[in-house]
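not sure who needs this but someone in the group chat was asking about PTS sugar transporter subunit IIB from Grylomicrobium aquisgranensis so here u go. i didnt clean anything up, its just raw.
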Amino acid sequence: MLKIAICCGGGFSSSALAAHLEKEVSHLHLEDQVQFIFIPIVHLLERMNEVDIAMVCPHCEWKVRQDAKKYTIPVAVIPPRLYGLMPVRDFVEDAQDLMELWKNGTPNVVTFADEPRPLAVKRTVSHRRWLQHETADFKALGK
């Protein structure tokens, strides 16, 4: 089972996001595949053993960058355009792909190579789906 922490400062928006994603997990009958857990950013270092990856709210990017070398799990910042809008499948795809990058040596804070600044990301779907869409558009143009 993939365990994803949703983290932020006060917990207001991230706890609501984690609850929303858990509700969608239940609706899609994915309870045996994925779990979203709210963890306040100030407790992530002591609780990181509970999850496989931490996905952090955009306004806490400074904190995870400050502590990046202390984490023993992959940590990524949720791009603002995706925060609260991305369906559970897209969160899972991004988590899986970011975990793979981390396992292959990408240091924390983990980002996709073409998205080094999470706050500037414009996509509204998982990175995987966005790349598939970009490739399909490119092929449609005959290039």
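also The longest strand covers residues 2-7. if thats useful
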